Amino acid sequence: MLTLMQENPTSVINQSHSTHKDKIAGYRFINNNRIPPQMLTESLQEQCLRNSKGLELVCLQDTTEYNYQHHLERLQEDTLGIVGNNVDRGFFAHTMVSFDAESCLPLRIPYVRLWSRDPNKKNKKERRYKALPIEEKESYRWIEAAEKTKALLQSAKHITFISDRESDIYQI
What we know:
Blueprint: H1 2-7, H2 13-16, H3 20-30, H4 37-52, E1 56-67, E2 81-82, E3 89-100, E4 106-115, H5 124-127, H6 140-152, E5 158-163
Parallel strand pairs: 1-5
Antiparallel strand pairs: 1-3, 2-3, 3-4
């Protein structure tokens, strides 16, 4: 099952599997409660660690929003929070991807954080967002990603981090 997914990497099970039997196996794997998302993340991190020893790395990070508003009838109720527009249902993924600086080959994912916003959460003004410690803000993901990647990939020769201007944050 995993070999099939590795040979034809895509996020769409119907495209990565040619037979009905393999598609069913793919969906069963994804929906298996004994395989929590943390286990998949740790597997990616372990492989990234093995691939990056002694190398000069370039690590890119950014956040992606997955909006499932048009698929609500297909989802279990209350499985997703709200996304960027504070109305639609979905989740966010903040991911760090590492590359060998010399060959430009991808080495896997050393960090990923998945979350969605609680629909009942107070707005920024009610929470006194500006007064919150940086660790309690969503933007802390930029710092956390870099720190956890440095800790995981300490056997790398050198790490260069690249991110967009949203990562230019500081605590007041």
